[in-house]
Fold this sequence. Notes:
With 137 residues, the chain is mostly helical. Helix content is 77%, strand content 0%.
Amino acid sequence: MKSTTWRWGWPWVLLLAVVLGTAWLRFSLIESHAIGQQCDAVNAPAWCSGRQWLIVGFLYHAYGVAALLAAALSLLSQRPWLAWLAAALGAFAFELYDFEIGAVALLIGSLRLLRLQARVAPVEPHRQRQQQVQSQP
């Protein structure tokens, strides 16, 4: 039973890791005033270009568009990893300032993943004693 629970639960744990990682990116790397000043300097570190690409990505709604594309693909296919990708990209877009599109993709991806997991989840058969009628309590 534990392996079955873990098998159905690991996508949600990974989704939580994506949310926490994105929050760290947002608050530590993008919104940090000290890092912003360091990247604006003449001799900026090499990793500042990655920070700049993150900022350009949310300015042009690249994360939201990618999340919506993944959500549409997850609705057209029966693959749980596509539904997880839609939810993860939706959470990423939601936290990186693309609230509307990210929320829609996160909702579609999460509901699709739940639906796909429910289709293949093992159903316990009813126990024999539950089907019997007792004449006296």
